[in-house]
Fold this protein.
Amino acid sequence: MGVFHKYSGSSFIALLKAEYPELLPNYRDISLPPQVVTSTTIAALKYAEGILIAGDRRAVIEGHLVVSDDVVKVFRTDAYSALAIAGIFGPSIKMARLFQTELEHYEKMEGFSLSLEGKANKLSQMIEENFPAAIRGLQVMPIFAGYDVEKKEGRIYEYDIAGGTFVKPQKEPFSSSGSGGERAKSTLEHFYQKDMGREESLELIKKALNFAAKRDVATSKDAFVIKDVSARGVVDMA
């Protein structure tokens, strides 16, 4: 006898919900543990050809006790998009990996990738589903960067803890989040110039993260993961 499947669409998350709900992350019935690991400062910057998206490499507990200076908070999610995460480290990593699988599954099932807007909306839905955990203290606060191949432009997406999506307007083509996010943003506001080149933008996003690290013990100095998202695809810059 063949196996009967309840779901046959192109969403990997919907497939898990229908067939294997026990495999989905479930933080609804737990509260914040006493020594949870958090990730810290992330940022994204639009330049002439695309987007740079970056994060420092420190993880802390209780906001100030360093547990690692070798974590990764920036991920390639598909050929033309990347995700940076701030917040509670465990749920953030799981969401990033599940989002990667969701995009890959959709492309395999449909034969083409989601539009950039569709990718951003998928991530919004995932954050919304995490909201019960977020109000218990298990927040996941990502920045999503993608390159629209048809429109030939990079775009930055911000989210709130309920899944609300905000496309950064042209007048403010950068974003930051995490414990050092405000200091990073002030650096970007002060030094950003329209149509900056990639190398110049790379130095600026490093400057922003280092400025955050000067006052924020939860942000590492001179230790970053940076990815370039452009017509070239997703390229490691640091």
Q: What stands out?
A: The CA atoms of residues 43 and 189 lie 12 Å apart. The helical segments are 12-19, 89-110, 116-129, 131-134, 181-191, 198-215.
